[in-house]
Amino acid sequence: MRKILVTGAAGFIGFHLSRRLLAEGNEVVGLDNLNAYYYVTLKQSRLKILEGMGKDPESPSFSFVRADLADRKAMEALFAENRFDIVVNLAAQAGVRYSLENPQAYVESNLVGFMNILEGCRHHGVKHLVFASSSSVYGANTRMPFSVHDNVDHPLSLYAATKKANELMAHSYASLYKLPSTGLRFFTVYGPWGRPDMALFLFTRAILEGRPIDVFNEGRMERDFTYIDDIVEGLIRVLSKIPAPNPAWRGDAPDPSSSFAPYRLYNIGNNRPVALMEFIETLEEQLGRKAIRNFLPMQAGDVPATSADVDDLMAAVGFRPATPIAEGIRRFVAWFREYYG
């Protein structure tokens, strides 16, 4: 049995990963601050499921800690009281658009909070740190599909900048303290129990309530929508793939995806971009209703298209996401109808 810290355990990806880890017999400590960025009731519903899975009184396999990553003393105590084999950092202030309104939240959670994670791992012998990055780091890049071997120095939002900073911070600790670190760039994750600020949730609720949906860039958008089960499968495989220094890495031609230190970056995306209008039409079919479309210009900080090159992930762990968009949306709609009646 491995003891694994999952930060953001009440969040979308953290919940699904924790559930899978518990089902496979691991001991999971879930950390979350249950902030009000979106419905706390949804986070509590996720936690209730996890707590139900870990209720064996003789061998409890799930424990929940309510704390903020940016609370240094709380994080120091958490690491001092436990001996984690693996740390999976999924807690972050998410959302490109919200970063335009409340930039301080991103500095506190994504920078200060991540610093506390790194220090905890460094001082308490964590064997592998896996952390969430984002496709947003590709920013102004236009070469498709996005590759982990490409330079990503032109973020278009503070959210993206903090995720790029996380990659750099983790590399410095991998270099200085030999902390094995793996960063995963997630591409537009969707599925049951998804975040209410994401397009699929927003569109579903609006269509069922007869309200218009906002379609940005006049609908000329493409996204590499990635189903949650594929994200979790990739995560599970990567947890056991502890990075080692790349002997072929060269300082005169540095490859951003690897290092002379125990450090790796991978994309996790469906590697099959879907046009936004096709996405909406697929959702309409599943709901049996037409959307009222409110076409708008591109939002600040957004990009017209994303597409993931996942060849490195496939080479490393033998997996590439493959859930078709129609099947993923069908499962989400089934969950939404059940959860919200």
Q: Overview of this structure, please?
A:
The structure is a single chain. This protein is of the alpha/beta class. The chain is built from 11 helices and 13 strands. It has a 7-stranded parallel sheet, with helices on both faces. Helix 1 (12-23) packs parallel to helix 2, helix 3 (72-81) packs parallel to helix 5 (103-123) and helix 9 crosses helix 11. The radius of gyration is 19 Å and the shape is globular. The model has no long low-confidence stretch (mean pLDDT 94).
Task: Spell out the key features of this protein.
341 residues; alpha/beta; two-stranded parallel ribbon; seven-stranded parallel β-sheet; 13 strands
Give the amount of beta strand, in percent: 15-25%
Helicity level: 40-55%
Q: Give the strand line-up of the largest sheet.
A: 3-2-1-4-5-6-11
Rg over alpha carbons: 19 Å
Secondary-structure element sequence? EHEHEHEHHEHEEHEEEHEEHEHH
User: On the 0-100 scale, what is the average pLDDT?
Assistant: 94
Structural class: alpha/beta
Detail the topology: elements first, then pairings:
Elements: E1 3-7, H1 12-23, E2 27-32, H2 40-53, E3 62-66, H3 72-81, E4 86-89, H4 98-101, H5 103-123, E5 128-134, H6 158-177, E6 181-186, E7 189-190, H7 199-208, E8 212-215, E9 222-223, E10 226-227, H8 228-239, E11 263-268, E12 274-275, H9 276-287, E13 292-295, H10 311-317, H11 325-340
Parallel strand pairs: 1-2, 1-4, 2-3, 4-5, 5-6, 6-11, 7-10, 8-13
Antiparallel strand pairs: 9-12
